[in-house]
Give the backbone structure.
Amino acid sequence: MKDQRAKEFARCAVALALALRETSGIGDTLEADVARGGNPFAPPPVARAEDPFAPSLAGSEGIFDQALTNGLAAIVAHEWPGEEKDKKGRVLYARQLLCVIEKHVTPGADGDLVIPDPRGDRPPPQSPADSNFHWRQLPALDTRIDARVLVDGLDVSQSARHARGTGGLERQHIDALLALDDHKSLRTMSEQHADRAWENAREEDRHSATRAAAFLELIGDDEAARRAEGVDNPNEYHPKHNPNGHDLDTCPICGYRTFCVQGLDIRGRVGFGQCLICTYIRSPDTADDEGYGEHLAWLDGKD
Ligand SMILES: [Zn+2]
């Protein structure tokens, strides 16, 4: 059961991510969206005409603060129950919540606060001899909190809210906010159609792999093995009834031969589709990317 705070975090974070994405090609700030009139948080036109910046940004800046406070409160409540509130039982402000996390977590080399995956490092699956796949490390479910960028986001949003400048959230602020969604207490963005919010195939793939790893953790190794035993291939090749079908392939995330291939990349090397056990999705774009990588490796090997 997801906490109400997690839902609030996801609702706000997705709205921001979508607003930011719509500005692509125009600029990195949300003002660009205001200028275009496409800002979902835009105020009535009168206010915009009077002051093109501060009041019109107030909505989205407020949403950033709200998303961050809810996300951090859910994380702190999960990791150190009770510390998300003050003595009177009120939820702390985002800055105070970051201080609580800083108190418990040592920053990594890059300055990020890292809450490690409770299951620790997991080895990549064993590579069967008959697979074309490049094995990869299972994505860690570590949560990376870039406190510096998040505090900066709060600073710019507060100056915008108090009309002290043009302010404006940038992509880095939203990215740091979205990164919180990897924490066990959140992971709600997919329920909020977050797939539309991911910028490119690689980011989408990373997210799909993280979701799949989280799903595997949820059902557990025994249940995954049991399900893998009885899997049927809904896209089984048949010369007459399903000439475009494919054999199941090995899933790069869970390691079972349960990846249902819907088609191949343009070089015919890597299949796209979905794993029937861990739900990992490899999109056609990702398959093209990986197929190209394999093609280059193959050319290298020929020399
Ligand atoms: Zn899988």
User: Anything to note?
Assistant: Residues 24-58, 193-198 have pLDDT under 50 and may be disordered. Residues 219-302 form one domain. Strands lie at 113-115, 143-145, 259-264, 271-275, 281-282. The CA atoms of residues 84 and 96 lie 9 Å apart.
